[in-house]
Amino acid sequence: MGLKITIFCSSPDHPVNEWLRRWIDGRSALETVHLVHDKSQIQSGDLLFLISVSELIGPDTRARFQNTVVVHASDLPEGRGWSPHVWTILRGGDAIVVSALDAEEPVDSGAIWAKTRIEIPKTALCDEINERLFGATLELMAKVCDMIEAGEQPRLQDDRVSSYWPRRTPKDSEIDPNESISSQFDAIRVSDPDRYPAFFRLHGEIFEIRLKKRPSRS
Questions:
Q1: Residue 202 phi, psi (nearest 5)
Q2: Does 69 or 216 have the greater pLDDT score?
Q3: Which burial class, exposed, middle or buried, applies to 203 when counting CB atoms under 10 A from its CB (0-12, 13-18, 19+)?
């Protein structure tokens, strides 16, 4: 049997979980893989993947594994911190570099195993963005497994000046009803309609926005 792998995703409701389960099903003949949602469930093994984790995983936990790897949606060392792909799109970006790196302190400073670039169309909504991002995540996870099996090592991050994104809060999904839709379209489309929907306040009420594309007519 191959590597003994644990995947930790701290939110059982995160949409990436469906993709992670699919990845596990495809790797079951190659490795022993467990998906857990509570830090107390993390045991030991060869490789710990941290995917969409909202809490710090300390050195005592990381020491139980030969490698602990984070998948982070920015071209590190640029874009360390929280929700990097969202901040990139909000600032007009139409492509995202996704990095697989060693989990180290300070956060997002570890050596890089691999990177991949994905294009984000200007019309892509949250689910379409996730589809591209999660696909890249699974691709990088497989790449890291292959590199470990081949005895390859990650490389230190380059010497570009690092930048940091702040943690997003529900307030960041608020839309101004007095501004145009076009000027706020990116803020609407990156908001998770189920967990963190875009919303606005008007006439003493709060209204949620759920954006859906109309099928193209042939």
A1: -160, 135
A2: 69
A3: exposed
